[in-house]
Amino acid sequence: MAGSGYTDLREKLKSMMPYRDGHKSGGGGGGLPREPPEAPYDRKRRHQEDSGSEPSDYEEQKEEEEARKVKSGIRQLRLFSAEECAKIEARIEDVVSRAEKGLYKEHTVDRAPLRNKYFFGEGYTYGSQLQRRGPGQERLYPRGEGDAIPEWVHDLVIRKLVEHRVIPEGFVNSAVINDYQPGGCIVSHVDPIHIFERPIVSVSFFSDSALCFGCKFQFKPIRVSEPVLFLPVKRGSVTVLR
């Protein structure tokens, strides 16, 4: 995360939303939650169910155009060798072990079924942590309530991204580790535009996986529509989202 033109992102947020000054993290503010946009696949599926007909050429072309637009904002590079991955993965295992021993601050670790998150540097409230739901309600935790970015992240990951000109020097002030168990995933979301400076950079370790765009989730039981775009993600690859 970075706040362009500001030494502290909190100053940027305060200038953008002065009427929310004084609220603590997670306290929310003005504005009503918005429902997420309906995924094109669901529009198409409902149309088929209602009419009993196949999707029109126009609908298919519209979905293909949306996929092209999404793909145009993505860049992938294979930067980390198997040996480098193994070294970084050992460090991640150490993070998991330290978290299990309770060695991190409260807002560094966020646990969920089949997925744990570890926030280093800047951390923020989201999802079920919000008192008021909806885009734009996410808030940074006060400085110091999470652990600093470990030196090994700077040395083994960030430095390489800077050397290959993926990001400029000093761009990163938040590093998040998402630790997924088999079958684990994260629901469709947009990283908060009022908190995150683009690009958002993701590096994948331990196994190959995938990013899916344009999905719509339903729960109990969990179900998901077909994605507008399915993006394979290889171990050791870097994905840049603009």
UniProtKB/TrEMBL annotation:
The record's region (Disordered) falls at: 1-70
What are the GO BP annotations of this UniProt entry? Answer: methylation; mRNA export from nucleus; mRNA processing
Molecular functions per Gene Ontology = metal ion binding; methyltransferase activity; oxidative RNA demethylase activity
Which UniProt keyword terms apply here?
Dioxygenase, Iron, Metal-binding, Methyltransferase, Oxidoreductase, Transferase
Gene Ontology, cellular component aspect: nucleus
UniProt signal peptide: none
- Which domain of life does the protein's organism represent? Eukaryota
Q: Which cofactor does it need?
A: Fe(2+)
Similarity remark: Belongs to the alkB family.
- Name of the molecule in the record: ALKB5 demethylase
Organism of origin = Dicaeum eximium
